[in-house]
């Protein structure tokens, strides 16, 4: 029996489309409901400092109205730590955040920011929130995550998805090695960013990875297939690869 692989559906970009017109359609909470029906194991949303997609009220409704674990992606700032402690989602994923970036670029530098990251982990853990750190597949970052007491890391798959050929294979090998190292030192290992129907298989096949978080591709593909069908197809590809 292979290790189970959970799918967290990120609904940020449903809010991006909503915000393009300033109304309340499409509603990311409705998308989360559809995701649950289609087999998602969790919902992920990133409350950015500039609130460019998900807003505070979306987070509250995702927590209150959706009967799935909520993964709150956030920067390790006092504002976000305060919001998360009040909301008490199932999990918080600490990500680096730059105002000018289009999406999360690169992983969190845990090695270089042990003070800030360690304080955020402690404050979130005290509120009963399971913390994960979004990092590059670098053993030094994994060791620092372990040292600071984070129970989970999420490996950044962006570089793997952007490259092709030998460069992609090298990145895949690095992610596989990091996943093995992470579980060997007692971390739960997740992965995500940029995954699509074409790129998910080799990542899903890494047996140490327990969860994938996928958003942008699913929302884009929903234009063509519908959201439920896109999620079901992703789930099918993940399960096939894991077998
Ligand atoms: N995991 C983390 C930590 C992220 O920041 C993101 C993007 O918000 C994702 C997963 C999902 O990435 P994508 O939207 O490219 O599937």
Q: What are the main properties of this structure?
A:
TIM Barrel; alpha/beta; binds pyridoxine-5'-phosphate; 17% strand; eight-stranded parallel barrel; 243 residues
Distance between the termini: 9 Å
CATH topology: TIM Barrel
Q: Structurally, how many domains make up the residues?
A: 1
CATH architecture: Alpha-Beta Barrel
Q: Residue ranges: pLDDT <50 for 5 or more in a row?
A: none
The biggest sheet, with number of strands, parallel, antiparallel or mixed sense and barrel status, is:
8 strands, parallel, barrel
Ligands, ions, cofactors: pyridoxine-5'-phosphate
Mind telling me the CATH superfamily name? Answer: Aldolase class I
Radius of gyration, taken over Cα atoms and rounded to an integer in Å: 17 Å
Question: Care to count the β-strands?
Answer: 8
CATH classification, class level: Alpha Beta
Across the major sheet, the strand order is 1-2-3-4-5-6-7-8
The percent of residues in helical segments reads 40-55%
Mean pLDDT: 96
